[in-house]
Design a protein that fits this description.
Layout (H helix, E strand, L loop, with lengths): L2 H7 L1 H20 L6 H18 L5 H15 L15
Helix pairs in contact: 2-4, 3-4
Length: 89
Amino acid sequence: MNKAKKLRRDPEAVSFAQARDELFSHILRCGVIDALPEHQKDWLDDTMLYLADRYEDLGEEELGQLRVLGERFCQPVQRKAEPVESGAA
């Protein structure tokens, strides 16, 4: 059996994917990305409690992974610096 099919049928994997998508959606709708870091932490604390209640089949490890994903999703995009061209034409 291929791994992708197994993951789709695994209820825990399905719950994790749904919880992740819901978390990302909430982050975007609530404007958490633009919040101060301490407000992001408070918001994530509350939201993780909500997700733990909503997705009871997820364990502490999966919830921890969701939290890390949420924290990373809230971080500003890191752009690569453009090389500075030397010399004038």
